[in-house]
Amino acid sequence: MAKLPDETISNIFRLQQRLVALLDTATAAEYTLLQQFGETEETTPELEAIDNIKERLRIPYNRLHRILQQVAEYQPAATADMLNFLYRTIDEGDAIARFVIKYYC
Question: Given this model, what pLDDT does residue 105 score?
């Protein structure tokens, strides 16, 4: 298996940057909500929603980190399954970022 194209690696880093920025935005919203209203019966659903969003952003970020490292360590013998998982994770991370932007930003 050949080395990953530079464009793919750049796409991964850009996606991770987007995911981190969205995670930062969600954390800031959570902090603001807690500072203004505290954790009450009324704010609990919103705080839980923010926690869910943060987890949805963390998962692809962490997967991208791990799989990219694994692919780099296995080169040039990375398997097709590893590469398929990497590209699927890129697509899923992009979809999650778009979803969060569309519905929560």
Answer: 79
